Amino acid sequence: MAATNVKVHRWTRRDYERLAEAGFFPPEARVELIDGIVYDMTPQSSFHSVGILAVQEFLRSTFSPGHYIRVQMPLALDGASQPEPDLAVVTGSFADHAHAHPATAVLVAEVAERSLLHDRQRKLPLYARAGIPEFWLLLVKERALEVYRDPVDGKYQTRIVLRIGDLISPEARPDASLAVADLFPWEKPRR
Question: What are the residue boundaries of the structural domains of the chain, listed by start?
Fold first, then answer.
């Protein structure tokens, strides 16, 4: 039996935005455009939400002023991709992007529990191709932080795996330090 070639319709970012404006996606839908394909985003567990808040707290204290933190908001990375990373550190202020989403970030972070395969196979290469200098992948179940740096020709050249007990400093703020354990507050004894 011969296999049938099935075509996938690839959307442009402009098409995607038109569909959203026309109400094609229900208001409660959580979707993002990656390489021309619209993906449903997985629901968040409490671990995922708390992981986002833990990373956000550190990034806010580390990168202000001159930067701001976007939480689950679009990045217009190219003509076929508009991901909504869990966190993105962007230069300037939020008012700078009143008319268009930012096209880059200093650092992007994803919290992975149910979305690990999607984050590794689709988003990580996308961020590398876009030249995002640093990508953090917080692995909820593994209790680890993967740090990717040095994007060259669409691939990160450096991968560091950090665990509870390790420290991390963002490349753009080497003077700041974070205990990886602080990203996993559910691992700490309750008071």
Answer: 43-187
**Are 102 and 131 spatial neighbours (Cβ–Cβ below 8 Å)?**
no
With residues binned 3-state (H G I as helix, E B as strand, rest as coil), the percentages for the chain, rounded to 5, are 25, 30, 45
Q: Which mean pLDDT values do the consecutive 10-residue runs of the chain (191 residues) have?
A: 72 89 86 87 85 93 90 94 95 86 96 92 96 97 96 97 96 94 80 56
Fold assignment, 43-187: tt1808, chain A (3.90.1570)
For residues 145 and 151, give the distance between their C-alpha atoms in angstroms, rounded to a whole number: 18
Give the pTM: 0.87
d(CA 145, CA 29): 28
